[in-house]
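Regression check, zinc ion case 196:
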Amino acid sequence: MEKLRIAVQKSGRLSEDSLKLLKECGIGVPAGNNQLKISTENFDAEILFLRDDDIPEYVQDGVADIGFVGENVVLEKNKETEIVERLGYGKCRLSIALPKGKKPKNIQALDGIKIATSYPVILQGWLKKNKLKADIHEISGSVEIAPRIGLADAICDLVSSGSTLFSNELYEYETILKSEAVLISGKNISKKEQHF
Ligand code: ATP
Ligand code: ZN
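Current build output:
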């Protein structure tokens, strides 16, 4: 049978827990490697180490059979993949955060503001559902500094402890998604995945 190809984040918040979970499933990964693709120690599988953002597309295209990635990334990329299982780690929230002094009475008061985010698709969906319009400014990193430099009125970003928001004089105003790591597969589950 062909080897199962498993996509894992190369280095980041999900890497360690994903490899630990694979190990618990009997899929040992040799330590201290720095390769894109490796064969596992005692299982007919290959691990592909990728940026988390690329994992949904690799799984959609069948380059990887399954992948470990944040649900936030799955929803944002909107590829043809299926969530097979929620994994219980990598928990975070995608939230709208505002500068400390700003206290809108309700979410309707957000109408028309400028929001910086790396998650335009999820944010747009939430705005639409709530019949709101906002000016979404997409940036790929350091979203939390946007209000301070006058780039946006608010941000929509991932939060876990809230310490990054706090040190940038922002606070969590409204959670729009609760996320955790998930296992994804392509839409047509193949024989080798069922075997896994
Ligand atoms: P890559 O180099 O692979 O693109 P990255 O910087 O985009 O990495 P990480 O910061 O490692 O990604 O986060 C990976 C995932 O961890 C997030 O997509 C999210 O699902 C989860 N996560 C949990 N807590 C947090 C948090 N406080 N901030 C950001 N991501 C978090
Ligand atoms: Zn990423």
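Comparison notes: The mean pLDDT is 94. Residues 4-90+181-194 form a domain with the D-Maltodextrin-Binding Protein; domain 2 fold (CATH 3.40.190.10). No diff flagged against the previous build.
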